[in-house]
Specification:
Strand content: 25-35%
Number of strands: 24
Shape: elongated
Largest sheet: 7 strands, mixed, barrel
Oligomer: single chain
Order of helices and strands: EEHEEEEEEEEEEHEEEEEEEHEHEEEE
């Protein structure tokens, strides 16, 4: 099977990178709120970055693994534990049938991501496994996960190449005051010069009215020229609407497809995780950047993720009879082992296996 849930926590859903191609019909893209954390979790367990993960919000679920598999937890630190012991974050870890997992509470950020090797056994609907809570489409029966629910593993694994290297430095989401970079527009000309200056120089706080659809902020009033209403047009992930009351709203993964409020700016892609990992009371400043700067930062992030994926997928090449291969002669008494710690190919009756040597051993026959 895979995972059996004793409780679903505050809000645990199945999400991938979103259901694209249907906004013209009024269907939100949905998908993970923090795309970078989800992508890293998938890469660590050998999945494609778009594979579905469990998105855990604020208070984590209690669950039991009913089959062995490799998992990774990234994003906000909600203190994941397996069998009562801290689980290292941003690292691939093998869990076993019967192991229990829970989360002790938030220490930084607000959302954690759990990826499992081989992916979750969730049906693809309109090109995605993501949960659209409003339309009750996708994910686990179109809803959040609760006690008694079970989700299977699609293709579980107990070993991966370079298992010991499958860890990265955790991201720091502990800062309660952040600078978020934005590209101005498309309706920044609907605001007075003073309004734009207020937006870029003031401090805004996340309010309790923040969820997967959007985050309402509170702070200095942003002045319009002629009110905040416009002819309805499209909305993108990260768009910052400013209705007539002058308080900004950052549109998130479950945002509506169109809206009739002025949009003063949009959060750049690489900074969206900072918004997704914020909680009520966190403060934010906005910094203007150009489209070219935003694109450069995005390309750098894509290249880093690609490099991590390629590095972890490398298989050590044999460099001699014993130098990089453990050879086992099955059916006879001769066995030879090479000493250094690392990942090796094991050849048994002509079949190759990957073996992780965790301790140095002596050669013997």
């Amino acid at each position: 099977m895979g995972i059996k849930f004793a409780s679903g926590g505050f809000l645990t859903t199945v999400q991938d990178m979103g259901r694209t191609g249907y906004q013209e019909s009024g269907m939100s893209v949905s998908g993970v709120m923090d795309q970078r954390s989800a992508a890293i979790a998938n890469i660590l367990v050998g999945n494609d970055e778009n594979e579905a993960v469990l998105e855990v919000t604020l208070m984590g679920p209690m669950m039991e693994f009913t089959e062995d598999n490799i998992i990774a937890v990234t994003g906000g630190n909600l203190v994941p534990k397996v069998n009562g012991k801290d689980l290292p974050m941003y690292q691939a870890v093998l869990v076993h049938k019967g192991d229990s997992m829970n989360f002790a509470g938030m220490t930084s950020g607000s959302r954690a991501y759990i990826a499992v090797a081989g992916g979750l056994d969730i049906p693809v609907q309109m090109g995605s496994k993501s949960t659209n809570l409003k339309l009750k489409v996708g994910g686990y029966q179109g809803r959040k996960i609760g006690g008694g629910d079970e989700i299977g593993f699609a293709a579980p694994k107990t070993t991966l190449p370079n298992m010991r290297k499958r860890k990265v430095t955790p991201e720091d989401f502990s800062q309660t005051e952040k600078t978020i970079r934005v590209v101005m527009g498309p309706q920044d000309d609907c605001f007075t010069e003073k309004g734009v200056e207020t937006f870029l120089s003031s401090t805004y706080a996340f309010t309790n009215e923040s969820d997967r659809m959007g985050c309402r902020l509170e702070g200095e009033v942003i002045e319009h020229k002629n009110g905040g209403d416009i002819i309805t047009d499209g909305i993108a992930f990260g768009a910052i609407q400013v209705p007539s009351h002058g308080q900004p709203i950052i549109m998130m993964a479950d945002h509506q497809t169109t809206g009739g409020y002025t949009k003063i700016a949009g959060v750049i892609s690489v900074d969206l995780p900072l918004v997704a990992q914020s909680r009520p009371g966190y403060k934010v400043h906005f910094q203007k950047v150009t489209v070219e700067e935003a694109q450069k930062l995005y390309i750098e992030q894509v290249e880093k993720l690609k490099a991590l994926k390629e590095e972890l997928a490398k298989v050590p090449e044999p460099c001699g009879e014993l130098d990089a291969v453990i050879q086992v002669a099955v059916g006879c008494e001769s066995k030879r082992y090479w000493n250094p710690i690392g990942t090796y190919r094991v050849v048994i009756d002509g079949t190759e296996y990957m073996v992780e040597l965790e301790e140095e051993t002596e050669r013997f026959r």
